Amino acid sequence: MRPLEGVRVLDLTWVLAGGGGPRLLDALGAEAIRIEWRDRLDTLRLAGPFVGPEPDKTKPRGPTDPPANVNRSGIYNDINSGKRAISLNMTRPEGRELFKRLVAVADVVVDSFTSETMRNWGLGYDAMKAIKPDIIYLQQSGWGYKGVYSGFGSYGPVAQAISGLTEQSGLPAPYPPAGWGYSYMDWSGAYYCAIMMLLAVYHKKRTGKGQYIDGSQLEPSIYLTGTAVLDFAVNGRHWQRTGNRATARAAAPHGTYRCAGEDRWIAIAVTNEEEWGALAAQMGNPAWTADERFRTMDVRVANQDELDRLVGAWTAGQEPFALQERLQKAGVPAGVCQTAEDRVERDPQLRHLNWLIPLPHPEIGTWPVKNVPFHFTNASVDQGGPLGRAAPCYGQDNDYVYGELLRMTPQERADLRAQGII
Known about the structure:
- By secondary structure, the chain is of the alpha/beta class.
- The protein has two domains: 8-223 and 352-418, 3-Layer(aba) Sandwich (Rossmann fold), CATH 3.40.50; 254-338, 2-Layer Sandwich (formyl-coa transferase, domain 3).
- The chain has 18 helices and eleven strands.
- The protein has helices spanning 20-27, 74-79, 93-103, 117-120, 125-131, 156-163, 165-168, 184-207, 218-223, 226-235, 273-282, 297-302, 304-315, 320-330, 340-346, 348-352, 398-405, 410-418, and strands at residues 8-12, 31-36, 84-87, 108-111, 136-141, 211-216, 254-258, 265-269, 334-336, 356-361, 365-370.
- The strands form three sheets. It has a six-stranded parallel beta sheet. The protein has a three-stranded antiparallel beta sheet with strand order 7-8-9, with helices on one face.
- The protein is elongated.
């Protein structure tokens, strides 16, 4: 039994900040149906890495077919595992009428378009509510439905910059802000997207009422800047970037240090004298560890540049994983800066947690994707969802959705396909 069994979600999202929300509901048992159209495919379908040949973006295969090889993206497969998918041309009036019929048999509608897209199609919340009074509709746009930015498009790094997170990350001035590299706000936005839908489903179960939800990618990112916002509001202080230096408490050494091998690093954080003594012992108690500049935490913090240089000179000759194990056993907080290969192939804790789950795909075979980051004792929850499969191919579930759910005949479906509607 899956917790959300019987819940149906119409998924009009894009990329990760939107698509990751229905991904989690699907893992919990909901039936998530992606709605796509070949003329404006999800960016992830066209983004690598690919299993096999890359998509041919210039040569559609027919009047309603997408370019070749759009089902082979590894990242699309990861973000959309377990979902169903249909092709539907929402730019055509006939397509929008079909969408209305889908609303009638759905519980949740979620999109990540700019704020006015659905309303311009005559498919805003009021229109959906007239079809299904208890429908839940979440708009997960970049900036929210109202306000001066509401019509703007967004990607994770853009929301991250506007929120202040990018400014807070990196080495101190005069170096420029570094940002967080990966599109961190896409995953954060996805989790908030899932939380909003879960709360609305719970509310509907208690009251029988659906609702409209105005979500955004910007607001969750602002919440992640909490300490900086509070410090300015209360003390008038502006956030100053500190690189890898500790800010919440005194800690030294505290940073990442080069190890043996190509671009290998380890993080070490020493927060008290016991840990410092243990680290010094692991280094063989070199004479410099007894220097007056490093005897106490206060002076170590004051002399961190030199301390980092000396610790880094020692770690540079150490194999990172062996060093991590030695330091952890000695009571020194330390962890290898792991690569993707490390996480997939060698991390024993992640393997124990089953963080990857192999799922079958009709074109690329069985490949691992990220599993959900939680485990239930009395419910079936995994990223394969109710179907136990990887991401859907383009239009893979047209026969099920249009045939079984909407009761359309094969001839009706063939006619709509010939007309460029499905």
